[in-house]
């Protein structure tokens, strides 16, 4: 079948390559002409996405994937159109749907009768039906009669998209009565009869399901963060507590840390907050998690007699380890909190260029990394695992409780985690 994917970014490109790899003809549509040209040369713009490089080379060489900026022409040749254009929050904290609206307007001018349109991007409840489906009628076709619409959230971890595409059940919910069943049939065709697809009552059910997954994780992390502060108040190690609590099947407490980053988990509770129904917990979770960088900076300040003039190195500026993705990264919140207390802060990221480090507001650290008062390990990239912490700083703050404290201590360095007692010694 012929499939158009609108937006060949972190999600849309691996999705396009996976469908093309299954033997379908995929048109990857994007407004970014540079990216389109790169993809058509078989070059991978997302090197940290596992398996994408080889797959991309293969499907571009076979002609199964073609990237294009001419979305209208591409969708006119396709029976299915998938939307993977990102939706972020604006300064007011509500969903910025402008790019997705623009994409839907364009697609509406090109689709042919019989097309199935699926929105993959996480959305506030009701958006697919009330805002997006009507835009697809801009070319004169009628929803339900001429084309179908469904919402089907991506449930993927960046860096592992290709593997995750088939790992979890694909959830689909229709706007028109045919939307859900047609989307289910599409995914079976795209990924094989053994693809696990669950048809939900409607698009709104699927939209809320995705928001529920995100809100659950944000709140769970907020609980972990609150418990970590309780642990600190008593000198208890939260890692021992959660390990013990989670040894029975009713407890799934996540790992505390200096907040929640990326353009998924911290964003989706906002979609609940802007919608109908109560959202007290969603707001509270955001507040608790957003306060963690301040908490961490104050904890360090308390340990080393204030931060004024102290040399602080923040390592791992991406929102999580081993992917070069920075939206809503808490590293910038840590910079604000440490610098705001007078510390001289440098940034380092094994995955980012110097310009990338600067673009986040950091002064890049000079190599070799040495002579700091505190090293704050935010995203613990694999590249940091063999670092000689003793050379870098006498105190390491493990901002995500991701490091092996015994290894840090064995190197003669004090270790401090979130909700974890600082190493005894000095
Ligand atoms: N990144 C994740 O880990 C993740 C996980 C699950 C779900 N999602 C969802 O996927 C969505 C997409 O995220 P992403 O990380 O791929 O974003 P991205 O920014 O990497 O990619 C979006 C792409 O869309 C293109 N685009 C923008 N407007 C367009 C238009 N009018 N026509 C065609 N292309 C257009 C952009 O140029 C860009 O290449 C997110 O909003 C989120 O809801 C993301």
Q: Roughly what fraction of the amino acids lie in strands?
A: 5-15%
Alpha carbon gap, first and last residue: 67 Å
Based on Cα principal axes, name the global outline.
globular
Radius of gyration: 23 Å
Can you tell me the CATH class of the largest domain? Alpha Beta
The share of residues in helices is: 25-40%
Could you say which structural class the secondary elements and strand pairing correspond to?
Answer: alpha/beta
Largest sheet: 8 strands, mixed
Q: Using the coordinates shown, work out and report the CATH topology of the largest domain.
A: Rossmann fold
Tell me the count of domains: 2
Number of β-strand runs? 16
Describe, in short, the structure shown.
The chain is of the alpha/beta class. It contains 17 helices and 16 strands. The longest helix has 32 residues, at 203-234.
Topology, please?
Elements: E1 2-6, H1 12-21, E2 25-29, H2 33-40, H3 52-61, E3 65-68, H4 71-75, E4 80-83, E5 88-89, E6 95-96, H5 98-108, E7 116-119, H6 127-132, E8 148-151, H7 161-165, E9 170-174, H8 179-191, E10 197-199, H9 203-234, H10 238-245, H11 268-273, H12 280-290, H13 292-304, E11 311-315, H14 331-340, E12 344-348, H15 354-359, E13 363-364, E14 374-377, H16 389-392, E15 395-398, H17 405-410, E16 414-417
Parallel strand pairs: 1-2, 1-4, 2-3, 4-7, 7-8, 9-10, 11-12, 11-14, 12-13, 14-15, 15-16
Antiparallel strand pairs: 5-6, 8-9
The structure holds nicotinamide-adenine-dinucleotide.
């Amino acid at each position: 079948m012929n499939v158009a994917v609108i937006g060949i970014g972190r999600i849309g490109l691996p999705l396009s390559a996976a469908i093309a790899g299954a033997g379908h003809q995929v048109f990857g549509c994007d407004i970014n002409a540079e990216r389109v040209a790169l993809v058509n040369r078989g070059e991978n713009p997302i090197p940290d996405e596992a398996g994408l490089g080889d797959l991309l080379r293969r499907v571009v060489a076979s002609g199964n994937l073609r990237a294009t900026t001419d979305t209208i022409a591409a969708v006119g040749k396709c029976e299915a159109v998938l939307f993977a254009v990102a939706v972020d929050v604006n300064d007011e904290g509500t969903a910025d749907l402008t790019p997705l609206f623009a994409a839907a307007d364009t697609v509406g001018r090109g689709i042919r009768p019989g097309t199935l349109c699926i929105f993959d991007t996480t959305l506030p409840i009701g958006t697919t039906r009330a805002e997006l489906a009507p835009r697809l009628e801009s070319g004169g076709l009628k929803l339900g009669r001429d084309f179908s619409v469904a919402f089907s959230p991506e449930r993927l971890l960046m860096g592992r998209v290709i593997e995750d595409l088939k790992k979890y059940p694909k959830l689909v919910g229709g706007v028109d009565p045919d939307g859900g069943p047609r989307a289910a049939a599409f995914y079976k065709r795209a990924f094989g009869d053994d693809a696990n697809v669950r048809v939900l009552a409607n698009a709104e059910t699927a939209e809320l399901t995705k928001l529920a997954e995100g809100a659950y994780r944000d709140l769970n992390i907020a609980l972990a963060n609150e418990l970590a502060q309780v642990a600190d108040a008593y000198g208890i190690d939260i890692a021992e507590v959660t390990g013990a609590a989670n040894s029975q099947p009713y407890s799934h407490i996540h790992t505390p840390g200096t907040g929640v980053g990326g353009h998924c988990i911290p964003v989706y509770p906002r979609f609940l907050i802007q919608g109908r129904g109560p959202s007290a917990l969603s707001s509270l979770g955001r507040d608790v998690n957003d306060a963690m960088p301040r908490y961490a900076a104050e904890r360090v300040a308390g340990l080393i007699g204030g931060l004024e003039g102290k040399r602080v190195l923040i390592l791992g500026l991406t929102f999580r380890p081993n992917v070069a993705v920075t939206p809503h990264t808490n590293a910038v919140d840590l910079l604000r909190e440490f610098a705001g207390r007078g510390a001289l802060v440098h940034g380092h990221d094994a995955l980012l260029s110097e310009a990338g480090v600067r673009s986040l507001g950091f002064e890049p650290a000079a190599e070799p990394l040495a002579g700091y008062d505190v090293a704050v390990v935010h995203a613990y990239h694999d590249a940091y695992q063999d670092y000689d912490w003793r050379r870098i700083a006498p105190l390491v703050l493990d901002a995500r409780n991701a490091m092996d404290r015994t290894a840090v201590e064995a190197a003669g360095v004090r270790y401090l985690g979130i909700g974890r007692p600082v190493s005894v010694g000095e």
